[in-house]
Write a structure and sequence with these properties.
alpha/beta, 2 domains, 3-stranded antiparallel β-sheet, 42% helix, RNA-binding
RNA sequence: GUGGUUAUGGUGAAGGGGUUAACACACCGGAUUGUGAUUCCGGCAUUCGAGGGUUCAAAUCCCUCUAACCACC
């Protein structure tokens, strides 16, 4: 269940009720692909105040993970996290592992990148598996296309994803868990509209907007988000999948998007790239060698309260794993704080000024 | 002291007369958008221990010196 509490223009502040809790939106989900935020413990995550994380069906289907989770009882019990989890369906892997996958009307066949084992994903078995995992929110299996695909090919793909969505909806049994459809349509407005309208008719508990941030321009991405949100129901949450930079998030919230996930804060942290209130910085840069300053003097995260740039740079260059942990804590704190600021701003009707400030600091 | 071996960037090293001195690591930048990310992409020796010579051409050949290592006195 989803309720809108306040709005400012198209931006929305709301509450999403899921099996394991109530979530305030707009929200950001840290990415725990294989059941952990890389470099963090669940204790770190809780200290950060994360309320929901994202895990991936594809990665949780490899090795003998399904049996391990079954033995533990549920994904939550297996990974030691009792707050909400959203699982992605593996649709993105059809896209990113496309040289290892075969698509048919029936579903997608993957060859595991780990041991070469053949995996068959269908709308039905992916839905069943996510229910078995106990995901508070599960996504339908879809096909995600890259930028630059012809309209004809995109149309076929949208139709395939829609038929998969319909089958996924039928395959759903556990009504405690929310199921989201995913709007596709590449960079074609009519196809985006068709996708949004047909999915709406299937009455999902929420809607993903997929197939964006695949190399297209910011303007195109904005246009596609706008078309999708225009044709999705007001009373359901919209989740922009895999996006993005702070600026992307601001722009999308302004268009009425409620949920986000992105590897950017975590992956960038592991590669030394840090988000701060005054823009991005790279901890490897020599200018930080002797700096006794925290990463961001306006930040009250664990890392900024306790460590200098000089120390963090030293750890990073020495390849100490703690460097990744500390930078990940900082970047996730930054993203979660951004979302808190956004929610507060919408409630106080000051979202435009927050938005223009963020867009000024992060101009991409 | 005598004989031998070696000397190439921050490091380990290729190259044994023909013209832009390989490669790796380190270092310095940059990228990163539903994670196949301890990833990817750039930059980094006008110069080969020092000095002299041979040659159209020398890091590469010759001589002297210096240094390090090994063996013998």
């Amino acid at each position: 269940m989803f309720e809108l509490i306040s709005t400012q223009d198209k931006a929305r502040y709301g509450r999403l009720m899921v099996k394991r809790g109530v979530l305030e939106t707009p929200l950001f989900m840290p990415v725990a692909t294989a059941g952990a935020i890389k470099s963090l413990t669940q204790r770190d995550l809780e200290a950060l105040g994360a309320n929901i994380i994202l895990a991936n069906t594809y990665h949780l289907s490899l090795r003998e993970v399904p049996q391990l989770i079954h033995q533990a009882g549920s994904l939550h019990q297996f990974i030691g996290w009792d707050k909400p989890i959203l699982t992605d369906s593996g649709g993105f892997q059809i896209f990113s592992l496309n040289n290892l996958t075969k698509l048919s009307q029936e579903g997608a066949s993957f060859r595991s990148h780990i041991d070469g084992q053949m995996l068959h994903f269908t709308p039905e078995n992916v839905t069943a598996y996510q229910e078995q995992l106990g995901s508070d929110i599960h996504m339908v299996l879809d096909e995600c296309l890259e930028d630059g695909v012809s309209k004809q090919r995109t149309k076929e793909s949208v139709d395939l994803s829609l038929s998969w969505a319909r089958r996924s909806r039928k395959a759903r049994h556990n009504l405690e868990l929310l199921q989201f459809g995913i709007v596709q349509g590449g960079m074609y407005p009519e196809l985006r509209k068709q996708s949004a309208l047909e999915l709406t008719a299937m009455d999902f508990e929420g809607y993903g907007i997929g197939g964006l941030s695949v190399g297209e321009s910011k303007d195109k991405m904005t246009d596609m988000i706008e078309i999708a949100t225009e044709h999705l129901p007001q009373n359901k949450p919209r989740y922009l999948m895999g996006v993005g930079t702070p600026a992307d998030i601001i722009r999308a919230v302004a268009l009425g998007v409620d949920m986000f996930d992105c590897v950017m804060p975590t992956r960038n942290a592991r590669n030394g790239s840090v988000f701060t209130s005054f823009g991005r910085l790279n901890i490897r840069n020599q200018e930080h060698k002797f700096s006794g300053e925290p990463l961001d003097s306006n930040c009250d995260c664990y890392t900024c309260r306790n460590h200098t740039r000089s120390y963090l740079r030293h750890l990073f260059l020495a390849k100490e794993m703690t460097a990744k942990t500390l930078l990940t804590i900082h970047n996730l704190h930054f993203y979660l704080k951004l979302m808190t600021d956004i929610r507060t701003a919408i409630q106080e009707q000051t979202f435009p000024s927050l938005a223009s400030h963020i867009l000024r600091v992060f101009n991409r």
